[in-house]
Design a protein that fits this description.
Blueprint: E1 3-5, E2 12-17, H1 27-38, E3 42-46, H2 49-54, H3 69-79, E4 84-90, H4 92-106, E5 112-116, E6 141-146, E7 166-171, H5 182-185, H6 189-204
Parallel strand pairs: 2-3, 2-4, 4-5, 5-6, 6-7
Antiparallel strand pairs: 1-3
Length: 208
Amino acid sequence: MFLFDGPNTADLTILLAHGAGAPMDSPSMTAAAQALAGAGFRVARFEFDYMAARRSGTARPPPRAEKLNPQYLAAIEALGATGRLVIGGKSMGGRVASMVADGLFESGRINGLLCLGYPFHPPGKPEQLRTAHLADLKAPALIVQGTRDEFGTRDEVPAYRLSPAIDILWLEDGDHDLKPRKRISGFSAADHLGTMAEAVSAWAGRLR
């Protein structure tokens, strides 16, 4: 099952998976999808099996991220998008997408990768990096990250070895949901989502 936002006639579809702990219709996922739809993209959201099972009362923890790779590939097949396709997601969803992106890009099935709050490391464990596969990533990627994201801050990430195919948009004072503290930053969550959508639009315009 997918949730769709944006025009069906859009020439680019963005497929988004959720993070480890919240479903595809969480407030942050919904707000991000609507912002992207407002920029003219067709946005599709889906859930991994463990999260979908929770809707029927079966509490299941998330598996290791790489175990979800086949489910992401199955979602792409089920979506059957025509035209250009960008895959990605929120946090863990974006991480899973990043692990399958290169094979899909090299075969011409996707045009890029979009990660909203990439989990560079677990909170409080900066030594446990999740970046090895990002060093040689070939697929064009845009990571949208809050500067105070506890999964990877602006002070930490520049030291990581990341592929030149990866662009990073930093959102001032944003947390893991990209939300800033307005009294500190002067920005609202809506401001940041608008900036995100504009940046994705500009980035997508450069994709082949």
